[in-house]
Specification:
The complex is a heterodimer. Chain A is mainly alpha-helical. In chain A, helix 3 packs antiparallel against helix 4 and helix 10 packs antiparallel against helix 11. The radius of gyration of chain A is 26 Å and the shape is globular. Chain B is of the alpha/beta class. Helix content of chain B is 37%, strand content 26%. Classes of the chains: A mainly alpha, B alpha/beta. The interface between A and B is medium-sized, with 23 and 31 residues.
Chain lengths: 300, 297
């Protein structure tokens, strides 16, 4: 150790600490509160995950994922949730096909074409109102409009889910389109592009990451909806691969049915279905992240 | 109705200033004969409104072929507004309105049957802030040719190389044409935007303070580039940097903000327009002189 490396000694060393004061106390108080808030939000999430995994993991097996749904009185080692998994996947996929393109086109209209015009304001307002409609009301809406006439089918459930997803997709896509700087639009216009061209070749690619992740979050959300499916898809115990006709079933519906049964076997299958649903939603979330990262390639 | 009110306000403003400054004519036509000659833009008594606000009043100026014309003047004097009227970018601003006559190679730019799209394919623009698209360098330059219908891979390659060479960027990016245009430095990004603009072979390149966000080295590169581009394009540049105007331009127009305190209105006017040499060495208007010597603005 050389002397030069040591800090120079100052007779009156400056203190750069925050002096004890009400401000300092407030700062510490708020820090503690925020850590508490973090813990308070994290604990229930942790409990939910731990419980679902603890109670559901033991029943999960390949045969559970593929077998038909047995009568509730049978023990846990019989049957599985195959029809519900297939139903959830096909109903959600159909709902996505209906809601996502429509929602993105709606957002493009509102943000790029409608501007402050009457129709755009109406669409924006209506999608806000739709966001606030409880999901069971959407189920009833499709029930009276569709199910009463065309019977139970996966399509009915998909329509109800699409109604729920549509406003979310519209508003999240609109926010993403708003984030695209006008300088990019101007750059494209200045090269002689038409409005449609500007929208398709510059605005959409610039916003696509956010739009896709918003849409996938809406999908993940819809995957777990029970209420809209209650009176639109009916119930089956074997796989119905035709989403357009005949009763169908879904994981959320099966969780609801099995959890309300007094039999241990049914309850165990309910937990298994719950874990499967959580995993599917989780996969959608991961996909959303990956897609966002993939599209962000040229963003920086 | 609103328009006529604004006009009156603008004129009173002019009179007030004119009486203060003595009987100086507001607009000077070029004192010297028109160099190489061909008239590209012929602007007569042009005014532009944004809603009820009259941004520029009665601008009259000719722009000549293969010259660099610089617009100088303080903020709010309407330089950018006039520039953006040349390729109808003001159309994109809600409430923007243009009055007066504006001819581009004999055609009325604001004629009823004129397509702004067709105008902008001939009259390109480089903006103050570099705005590369979030695409690869290659796709940025190929963007214009592609929207004009060029699909041939081979020809696109040629255009991209020629344009990037034209913008003095080729050597720096030739090995990473597939990387994002946003990864470039400010000066490189601006040259990419210039390459993108010249890739469509425009007739005129409008530049709105193209170097104001750049460091001196990059600025120098852009200025050198302008001298080279001059032989192929007509360039109009808005700049806040008077040294830049003297370095690059053949002709300079000085814009000024007229304020009318009585009606609290302000509007931009063209005060003096002449060869750059004359504007900076022998300005005829006292306001021009005050501005170019740094005593005002």
């Amino acid at each position: 150790m050389t002397v030069a490396a040591q800090p120079q000694a100052h007779p009156q060393k400056v203190s750069l600490r925050e002096p004890p004061s009400w401000r300092r106390t407030k700062n510490q108080l708020m820090t503690v509160l925020m850590v508490l808030a973090f813990v308070v939000t994290l604990v229930p999430l942790g409990f939910v995950l731990v419980t679902v995994i603890a109670k559901g993991a033991s029943i999960i097996s390949w045969s559970f994922l593929t077998s038909s749904i047995p009568p509730p009185v049978l023990p846990a080692n019989v049957g599985g949730m195959g029809p519900a998994i297939v139903g959830t996947l096909e109903i959600t996929a159909l709902a996505t096909v209906i809601a996502v393109p429509l929602g993105i086109l709606g957002a493009i209209y509102i943000n790029e074409y409608g501007g402050k015009g009457f129709l755009a304001q109406v669409v924006r307002f209506m999608s806000d109102v739709m966001t606030g409609v409880p999901s069971i009301i959407m189920g009833l809406f499709i029930f009276t409009l569709w199910t009463l006439r065309f019977q139970y089918s996966g399509l009915g459930g998909a329509l109800a889910l699409a109604c729920l997803m549509l406003p979310v997709v519209i508003r999240s896509s609109e926010e993403m389109l708003k984030l695209v700087p006008d300088s990019l639009r101007e750059g494209s216009y200045a090269l002689g592009a038409t409005k449609a061209r500007v929208t398709v070749t510059v605005v959409l690619p610039a916003a696509v990451g956010g739009i896709v992740s918003g849409a996938l979050l809406a999908v993940a959300r819809a995957t777990g909806e029970t209420a809209p499916l209650l009176f639109t898809i009916g119930i089956v115990t074997s796989v119905n691969a035709n989403v357009f006709s005949g009763s169908n079933t879904s994981l959320p519906s099966q969780i609801f049915l099995n959890a309300t049964q007094p039999y241990d076997g049914a309850q165990a299958r309910g937990w298994g279905a719950a874990l499967t649903l959580v995993v599917i939603a989780f996969i959608f979330m991961i996909a959303a992240r990956l897609v966002t990262a993939r599209f962000a390639r040229y963003q920086r | 109705m609103e328009q006529s009110e604004q006009n009156v306000a603008g004129q009173t403003g002019k009179k007030a200033t004119a009486s203060m400054r003595g009987p100086e004519p507001l607009v000077r036509h070029p004192a010297e004969p028109a160099g190489t000659g061909n008239l590209i833009f012929d602007v007569r008594d042009m005014s532009v409104w944004y809603g009820g606000f009259q941004a520029v009043t009665d601008v009259t100026l000719p722009i000549y072929e293969n010259e660099i014309t610089a617009f100088i003047g303080s903020s709010g004097s309407g330089k950018s507004t006039v520039l953006r009227a040349f390729n109808r970018m003001n159309d994109l601003v809600p409430g923007a309105r243009v009055a007066g006559e504006m001819y581009y190679r004999g055609a009325n730019l604001y004629g009823a049957d004129v397509s702004p799209i067709a105008v902008r394919r001939r009259i390109g623009m480089v903006f103050q802030k570099p705005n590369p698209f979030p695409k690869s360098i290659y796709d940025n330059v190929a963007y214009g040719p592609r929207i004009n219908g060029e699909r041939n891979r081979h020809r696109l390659d040629e255009i991209v190389e020629r344009s990037l060479r034209g913008a003095a960027l080729w050597d720096e990016v030739k090995n990473r044409l597939k990387t994002s245009g946003l990864a470039l430095s400010g000066g490189q990004a601006q040259r990419l935007c210039i390459a993108r603009t010249i890739a469509v072979e425009p007739d005129v390149v409008l530049m709105d303070e193209p170097a104001s966000a750049l460091d001196p080295i990059s600025t120098g590169a852009i200025e050198d580039l302008m001298h080279e581009l001059k032989s192929r394009f007509t360039i109009v540049i808005v700049t806040h940097n008077m040294q830049q105007a003297t370095r690059v331009s053949d002709r300079t127009a000085f814009f000024y903000v007229l304020t009318d305190s009585a009606s609290d209105t302000r509007t931009g006017v063209l005060v003096e327009y002449a060869s750059t040499k004359q504007i900076f060495e022998d300005p005829q208007d006292s306001r021009t002189q005050a501005y170019v010597t740094g005593r005002m603005g």
